[in-house]
Amino acid sequence: MSEIKLQPASTGIKGTLSVPGDKSISHRSIIFSALAEGTSHISNFLTGEDCLRTVQAFREFGVEIKQEGTNVTVQGKGLDALRAPVNPIYFGNSGTTARLMSGVLSALPLFSTAYGDPSLSKRPMDRVVEPLSEMGAEITGREKGKFLPLAFNGQKLRGATIEMKVKSAQVKSALLLAGMLAEGETVIYEKGITRNHTEMLMSQYGISLDKQGNKLTISGNQQPQASNLTVPGDISSAAFFIVAAAITPNSSISIENVGLNPTRDGIITALKKMGAHIEVDQVEKVGHEPVGRVYVKTSELKGCTFEGELIPNLIDEIPILALAATQAEGTTYIKDAKELRVKETDRIEAVVTNLRKLGAEVEPTEDGMIISGKNKLTGGSVDSYGDHRIGMMGAIASLITEGTVLIQDKECINISYPNFFDHLKKVCK
Ligand code: S3P
Fold it and tell me: How does it assemble (predicted)?
């Protein structure tokens, strides 16, 4: 594990960036292409460690996947060509691989086992195991399937009506994938709006699905058909540089090719509410997803309350939003975000501990945090706890601290943003 010491950006940050491909869409592009019949070409694929876990998982099922940089070619041979892996599949740190693959692995007539790294092994899997069991899935695992490792005695599932207990796109996607492969019809009632990339990609890969409000209906025995796809830039990665420019004096940044799916753009809504100067233009559709350019410059921010329906729309951006709140005049309340406690690490604890170390005034609550601004940050050491988004929050904080910031375990950032430090260097010139 190596560390990096970062200096404040004394003259501001400037420039144009194009952030890497969206993590959620990259995972799904591999899943649909690998299950499909025919050859799919994916460009601007995220080569972060998490998405490579999904690639590797399908290679273990005998799917030929060629990756050259951010271009990926998947030789889909259809569902019947998949064969059971001999060895356990390693999901690494990737919650999305673990949850979405659970939907697939329980619904294919193959036996497989899977395990994760220490962080993923602590994250709840019962949220997918329980509803999949209602469809007839046979999944066993540690503590009755609450945690990885899991074993999937895959078989034809039967459609069911499922009322979701958590607001989670991963759970919804696992059920949609299982429903697509099952016998009969599956009806899913969502508890709230979550990212809809699976629904978008189902349409792209020729799968029919009906959505009426929070009710999703999918018929079974559907075989995806190959498709070519360009992955939009990840708004969750762009968020770090959007906040960087907003909080650093004398700064302005343009980020091109940012995915602007309305189920994902809550960070822009939230920062605008705080008073950030953000402009979005050049918006066009790439496949089924809107993309555009985001321009942001140094802004006077004010504290706000963030809660309710907005939270799932910016759940991964809360660490960097919390950093922005330390630079806002007044108090920011983040509520209804208990899900943060079961992310790559307990992100409420990790954000509070690290921001306090840097001199911020932050109080944890059960389902969020309270941040008092505006505070000059001092500098210090940030422990990422192996969580990419905590590491990047610390790195962006270094732009505005009085002293240096030491980021421990900087490698974890490769999980979602492999060229993060190159981009940081580029805008600091
Ligand atoms: C994801 C959904 C979210 C998000 C995660 C990616 C996805 O998780 O935090 O980084 O790709 O579906 P939940 O579904 O657990 O909210």
Answer: Monomer.
pLDDT, tens digit (0-9, with 9 covering 90-100), for 273-307: 999 999 999 999 999 999 999 999 999 999 999 99
Q: Which of 24, 53, 320 to mutate to test the pocket of ligand 1 (most atoms within 8 A of CB)?
A: 24
Q: String of b and e for 135-161 (b: at least 16 CB within 10 Å)?
A: bbbebebeeebebbbbbbebeebebbe
Please state, in angstroms and as integers, the Cα–Cα distance from residue 144 to each residue in 58, 102, 153, 158, following that order: 26, 15, 14, 22
CB of 173 within 6 A of ligand 1: the answer is: yes
Q: Over the stretch 402-422, which tens digit does the pLDDT of each residue have? A: 999 999 999 999 999 999 999
CA-closest residue to ligand 1 atom 10: 316
Q: Is the CB of 236 under 6 A from ligand 1?
A: no
Is 347 marked as binding a ligand?
Answer: yes
Closest CA to 322 of 385, 256, 389, 403: 389
Q: How far is the CA of 168 from the centre of ligand 1 (A)?
A: 6
What does the pLDDT read at residue 285?
Answer: 96
Please give the sequence-ordered ranges of beta strands (E in DSSP) within 183-321, or none if there are none. Answer: 185-189, 209-212, 215-219, 229-230, 252-259, 277-286, 289-297, 301-302, 305-306
Neighbour order of strands in the sheet with 37-43: 64-68, 71-77, 37-43, 229-230
Pick from 300, 296, 307, 359: nearest CA to 332: 307
Whether the bond between 374 and the residue before it is cis, its omega within 30 degrees of 0, is yes
- The verdict on whether residue 95 carries a ligand-binding annotation is yes
Proportion of the chain above pLDDT 70, given as a percent: 100
**Gyration radius of the chain's alpha carbons:** 21
Residue 429 has pLDDT above 90, yes or no: no
Ligand 1 within 6 A of CB of 108: no
Q: Is 387 annotated as a binding residue?
A: no
Tell me: pLDDT of 1 over 90: no
Task: Check if the beta carbon of residue 59 is closer than 8 Å to that of residue 83.
Answer: no
Query: Mind listing the pLDDT tens digit for each residue in 95-112?
Result: 999 999 999 999 999 999
**pTM for this entry:** 0.98
Residue 123 assigned to a binding site: yes
Q: How far apart are CA 98 and CA 93, in angstroms?
A: 9
* Structural domains of the chain sorted by starting position, each given as residue range(s) with its CATH number in brackets: 3-21+232-427 (3.65.10.10), 23-230 (3.65.10.10)
Index of the ligand 1 atom closest to the CA of residue 167: 16
